[in-house]
Amino acid sequence: WPGLDAIPHPAGRRPDTLDMENSDFVRPMQRMFQWSRELGPIFETQAPGFGMVVVTGADLARDLFDDTRFEKYTGFGIEAFRPVTGDGLFTAYNDEENWALAHRILLPAFSREALMRYHPKMAGSVGRLVDHWTKTAGDGPVDLGESSVSLALDMIGQAGFGFDFGSFEGGGKNHPYVSSMVNALAYSVLPPQLQQEREAEFRSWVTTMNGTVDDVIDTRRRSGTSTDTDLLGMMMHARDEVTGKRLPDENMRYQVTTFMVAGYGTTASLITFCLYFLSRNPGVLSAVRAEIEQTVGDAEIDFESVYRLRALRRAVDETLRLWSPTPAFLRVAKEDTVIGGRYEVRRGGWAALLTSGLHRDPAWGEDVDAFDPDRFLPERVRAREPHLYKPFGTGPRACIGRQFALHAATLALAETVRSFDVEVPQDYTLSVAEGGFFMPENLEVSVRRRT
Ligand code: HEM
C-alpha cells in the first residue's frame, strides 16, 4: 500500500509497540469494528512485524470484490491452518490444482438435489435436539451456544459423513476429534511465539483428527456400500468430468476436516444468534410462528416447506447481516490498482474485509444496528447493491456450504420455535466470544415445550 501514511490508524499508536496496547486479543474483531466506527471505511493497524489494512466501506469493498483485480488472500490465519486442512478447499492456494479439481467434484455435493438427500439426516439431528431439550428442559437453564454446537456437529457429522459424534449424549464432554479441532482452531490464531511453544500439542491434535477421519473413510470403504446419500459418499465416488480424476485420499481427508471446521461453528453461531434475536423481538417471532403454522402446521417439516418459510428466512438473513459468523475474509491485489478512486495498492497488497462493518455501512439506511428482517423483503433486496451483503464471502472462493448451512439452520430454527419457547433472560446483555467465529457467550436460556 504505497499511500499507507494517508490511511488512518488507531489513536495512541506507540513507536515501539505500535497499536498493541490498544488491541484486544480476546475480541480482536470487535475492536476492529469499533475502530472502523471511529476511523471510517478504511484504516490500518500494526503490531511489531505485522500490519493489516482493514476495509469496511461499501464503495471500497466494491473494488475488493472485483475478481479481475483481487482474489482470496491465503496468507495470515489461513496459512497457519495448512497443517490441518492442507490443500482442502478452504486453505488451498488459488492456483493449486486440487482446489479446481475438488471444487468441480464437490459442487454437486452442495446442489439442491444433494440437499434433498441430506434433509432426512438433518431432520434426524433436529429431532435429537428436540428430544434432548424435552428431557432436560425442566432441569434449569440451557446453554444455548452449547446446544447449537451439539446440533451443528450432529448435522454435519450425520449428513456429511454418516458419523455420530454423540454430541447430545456426551454430557458436556466432546468427542476427541471435536476437542482437537477446537484446540487446533484456537492455536491457528495465536501469535507465532505462542504457536512455537505449543507446537507439539498442535501436532498431537492433528494426529487425533487425521486418525478419526481415516477411520471413517476406511469403514465406509470396507462396508462396500456405494451410498451417495451423504457428502462422503459423493466425495468417494464422484469423478471429475474434465480430467476424469477422483479426489486423492489425502485430499479427501483434508476435505472432511475442512467441512467440519468451516461448517459446525458457523452454523451453530447462526442458530444461536437467530434464536437470541427472535426471543428479543416478539413481533418477528409471532410472524415467523404464524407462517410455520400456516405452511406446515403440526406436520413434518419436509424439504420443500423449508423454502416456503420466508419470514423465518428473512430473520436468518438479517441475523447474518448483524452477526455474520465469520468476522472477516481477506482479499489480495492481482495487479497494481486503486480502490475507491484514491487508495493505491500494489500487486500482492492485501486487506481484510470486515463483514460486520460492511453490513452496517450507512448505505443500509438508518438504524443499521437494529434487527429488522424486512430489509430482506424481495423488493428491498432488489433495490440494494448486492455487494453490501457478503456473509458467505465472494467470488470463486465464496462458501461452497452456503445452501447446506441455510437449509440446516432454517430447518433447525423452524422446529425449535414451533416446539419450544426459548426465552433469553431480560437482564442478559449480549456479549460475543471470538474463536474463528462469533458466538454469544454465557447465553443461558429457559426452554419450555409448547403445547
Ligand atoms: C468458505 C462463511 C457454512 C464450507 C467460506 C467463506 C465464508 C464462509 C465467508 C469465504 C472465506 C474466504 O474467503 O476466505 C460461512 C458461513 C456459514 C458457512 C457464514 C454458515 C452460516 C459452511 C458449511 C460448510 C462450509 C456448513 C460445509 C459443510 C466452506 C468451504 C469454504 C467456505 C469448504 C471454502 C470454499 C473455497 O475456497 O473453495 N464460508 N460458511 N461453510 N465454506 Fe463456509
Automatic annotation (TrEMBL):
Keywords for the protein's UniProt record, in alphabetical order: Heme, Iron, Membrane, Metal-binding, Monooxygenase, Oxidoreductase, Transmembrane, Transmembrane helix
Annotated TM spans: 256-278
InterPro entries to which the protein is assigned, alphabetical: Cyt_P450 (IPR001128), Cyt_P450_CS (IPR017972), Cyt_P450_E_grp-I (IPR002401), Cyt_P450_sf (IPR036396), Cytochrome_P450_Monoox (IPR050196)
Region described as Disordered: 1-16
Domain of life according to the entry: Bacteria
Family affiliation: Belongs to the cytochrome P450 family.
Protein name as catalogued: Cytochrome P450
